[in-house]
């Protein structure tokens, strides 16, 4: 009995302890919930019965540098529903569908969803809003939103950008400064039970949004209009694939205007092809700059002291680097000239020599310091870096071609930024588009000052480069960019288009001009780039330089920059005539005397490059009969002096059209004897041209009075020029 009582007491004690422990745990859990997690659980409870309908804020305005309104937001009402408050969804759907241009069934599904709210239609036209309000339908509510309004729809759309349906910035300045422009969203607070049903005395509260900040840009609306006007003219005249004009203040890096073609309307951007609005060619398009890049070669050479303006150069028409012949655009070359004339004439052999003098290490340091191969940091999305061959992999041939603007790809904004560094005395500035940020009351909360990236040139060296570029406009290839009353400095460029496979595309070019004015105190710098102009005219001096002149002249007058009275003008305007490039058949000039071979090729509209020494053409490339475009270079390989071969034989030359004296002198120099028949010019011969014969062989030549060369091809398209620039 005693044992039984002990067991019972122990069991009761254990049960009591277990109950006490459970009670302690429950009290602790209650305290944890009540004091520790109270806020968290209360918030979850609110979330179950409270729903927020976001209300977008009105985006801030965008102004030009003079306070002219470019972009604003206008009010537009949007329709939403609280489904459980809609008493007769079917009838409401049937009444609303015709007004909203929606299907009844789709609208009915929206009105019957188990949710606290649903958008029915966003940003409606005022007339439709009024008609819906007149119906007085329960469960439907309007909230004020905004629609972005671009005062000038087609003015600088790639710069300003556009917004989406939820007023978020999708492109351009709208995207870059989206956080500053978008403001603080408001809310519509709705109360319901867990199943979405109406709660008696439910809360329905509207919390208004806060408008976003406004931007003041560096753009000038008037200068931008000048740019848009000239771009329209370029499209009408040349129908190019792309066209870009950028205007910058070289003292500050501020972008005064930036335009592209093709373009679009910011208000209706969705109707334009995606390829037009999703990229800004001014900061994205990579292209070989051609002769405009010679500004960098000149700056590097002058800065490093490897050349002086009066240093002498000789241009025979081509220069050989490694196994490649780089020719000058002028048939026969420019001959003896100073470096100033090399720059004025845009002479390729001269610049190749300068680039090789610099050497890889020094030349690459200037390429990098001027910002090529890296983004400029302009405040727009989607900027490209350009393409620069790795310094480790670069060869002398790469160095030579980069010196003339080939084998390197740049963007328009990179090239203009580098040009501004020369113009302002050697400082590379970060280009920018925003001057100020203002709050909704108009108070300035942030300003953007000029940002110096680095010094790239000594001020005195930069002045020397400016003088050379001014000579280009006064006496050289840039004469069409001259502006009455202002000293202008700049450089033209004509470059071939690189295809997807890596080679140049026949007949496709990029014409460009970059420069600044006044040269002695630059206020305006501009770049004009026209990719793949149509109509047979494609030189930068013809296509881009006149556009630069029109834009910069109007800009200088608009900014009231004083003219220089009595300023000397170029003696002659730039004149260049050329027939469109056509296909021609390469004539045979093998075994012809060199001078005659050159004349034949000129008559055919072809250029030539001579390799080796001697008087007779031994081989030609391309071969006779090949079809090429007029202007193509034919490589002429000459026989060694005397024409003697390793086997002790000589190749009989083509003597057709030569006089007896010329034939006798030529054969004598080749250890061949002449048997002359008749007088006049050589009409036939035996052995025939090209045969190999032992030295001392007699060649029988028949001469006839007034005989014309039997193998000379007829003249084809002949180019006539006063002056022309080639990359």
TrEMBL record:
The keyword Membrane applies. SUPFAM superfamilies: beta-lactamase/transpeptidase-like, Penicillin binding protein dimerisation domain, Penicillin-binding protein 2x (pbp-2x), c-terminal domain. GO terms for molecular function: penicillin binding. It is found in: Membrane. GO terms for biological process: cell wall organization. InterPro entries: Beta-lactam/transpept, Beta-lactam/transpept-like, PASTA_dom, PBP_dimer, PBP_dimer_sf, PCN-bd_Tpept, SpoVD_pbp. Its main location: membrane. Gene3D superfamilies: 3.30.10.20, 3.30.450.330, DD-peptidase/beta-lactamase superfamily, Penicillin-binding protein 2a (Domain 2). One of its GO terms (cellular component) is plasma membrane. Residues 681-727 are annotated as: Disordered. It comes from the Bacteria. Residues 579-640, 646-705 form the PASTA domain. The keyword Membrane applies. Keywords: Membrane. Belongs to the transpeptidase family. This is Stage V sporulation protein D.
């Amino acid at each position: 009995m005693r044992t039984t009582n002990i067991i019972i007491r122990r069991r009761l004690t254990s049960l009591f302890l277990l109950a006490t422990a459970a009670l302690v745990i429950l009290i602790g859990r209650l305290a944890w919930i009540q004091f520790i997690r109270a806020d968290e659980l209360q918030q979850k409870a609110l979330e179950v019965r409270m729903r927020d309908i976001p209300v977008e804020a009105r985006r801030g305005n965008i102004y030009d540098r003079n306070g002219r309104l470019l972009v604003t937001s206008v009010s537009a009402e949007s329709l939403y529903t609280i489904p459980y408050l809609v008493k007769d969804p079917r009838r409401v759907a049937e009444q609303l569908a015709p007004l909203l241009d929606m299907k009844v069934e789709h609208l009915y599904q929206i009105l019957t969803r188990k949710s606290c709210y649903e958008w029915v239609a966003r940003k409606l036209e005022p007339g439709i809003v009024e008609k819906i309000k007149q119906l007085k339908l329960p469960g439907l509510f309007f909230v004020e939103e905004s629609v972005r309004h671009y005062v000038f729809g087609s003015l600088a759309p790639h710069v300003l950008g556009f917004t989406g349906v939820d007023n978020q910035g999708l492109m351009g300045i709208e995207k870059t400064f989206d956080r500053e422009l978008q403001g603080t969203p408001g809310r519509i607070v709705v109360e319901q039970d867990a199943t979405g049903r109406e709660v008696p005395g439910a809360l329905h509260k509207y919390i208004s949004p806060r408008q976003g900040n406004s931007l003041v840009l560096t753009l000038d609306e008037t200068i931008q209009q000048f740019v848009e006007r000239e771009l329209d003219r370029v499209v009408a005249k040349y129908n190019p694939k792309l066209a870009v004009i950028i205007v910058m203040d070289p003292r500050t890096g501020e972008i005064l205007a930036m335009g592209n073609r093709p373009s679009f309307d910011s208000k209706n951007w969705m109707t334009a092809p995606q390829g037009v609005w999703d990229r800004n060619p001014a900061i994205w398009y990579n292209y070989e700059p051609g002769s405009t890049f010679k500004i960098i070669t000149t700056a590097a050479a002058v800065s490093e002291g490897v050349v002086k303006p009066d240093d002498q150069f000789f241009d025979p028409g081509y220069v050989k680097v490694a196994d490649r012949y780089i020719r000058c655009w002028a048939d026969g070359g420019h001959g003896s000239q100073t470096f100033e004339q090399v720059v004025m004439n845009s002479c390729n052999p001269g610049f190749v020599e300068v680039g090789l003098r610099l050497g890889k290490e020094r030349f690459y340091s200037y390429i990098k310091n001027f910002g090529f191969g890296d983004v400029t940091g302009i405040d727009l999305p989607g900027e490209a870096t350009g393409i620069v061959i790795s310094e480790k992999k670069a060869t002398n041939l790469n160095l030579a071609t980069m010196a003339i603007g080939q084998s390197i790809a740049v963007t328009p904004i990179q090239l203009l930024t580098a040009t501004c560094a020369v113009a302002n005395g050697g400082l590379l500035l970060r280009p920018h588009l925003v001057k100020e940020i203002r709050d909704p009351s108009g108070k300035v909360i942030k300003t953007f000052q000029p940002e110096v990236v680095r010094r790239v040139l000594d001020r005195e060296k930069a002045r020397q480069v400016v003088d050379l570029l001014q000579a280009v406009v006064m006496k050289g290839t840039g004469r069409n960019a001259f502006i009455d009353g202002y000293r202008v400095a700049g450089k033209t460029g004509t470059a071939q288009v690189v295809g997807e496979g890596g080679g140049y595309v026949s007949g496709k070019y990029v014409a460009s001009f970059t420069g600044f004015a006044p040269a002695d105190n630059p206020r305006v710098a501009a770049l004009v780039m026209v990719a793949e102009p149509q109509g047979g005219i494609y030189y930068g001096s013809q296509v881009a330089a006149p556009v630069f002149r029109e834009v910069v002249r109007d800009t200088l007058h608009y900014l009231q920059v004083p003219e220089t009275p009595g300023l000397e003008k170029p003696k002659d305007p730039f004149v260049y005539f050329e027939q469109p490039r056509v296909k021609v058949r390469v004539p045979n000039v093998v075994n012809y005397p060199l001078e005659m071979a050159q004349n034949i090729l000129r008559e055919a509209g072809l250029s030539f490059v001579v390799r080796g020494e001697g008087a007779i053409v031994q081989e030609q490339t391309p071969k006779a009969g090949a079809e090429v475009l007029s202007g193509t270079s034919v490589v002429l390989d000459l026989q060694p002096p005397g024409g003697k071969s390793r086997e002790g034989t000589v190749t009989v030359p083509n003597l057709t059209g030569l006089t007896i004296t010329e034939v006798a002198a030529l054969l004598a120099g080749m250890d061949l004897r002449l048997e002359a028949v008749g007088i006049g010019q050589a009409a036939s011969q035996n052995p025939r041209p090209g045969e190999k014969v032992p030295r001392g062989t007699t060649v029988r030549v028949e001469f006839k009075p007034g005989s014309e060369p039997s193998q000379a091809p007829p003249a084809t398209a002949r180019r006539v020029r006063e002056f022309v620039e080639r990359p």
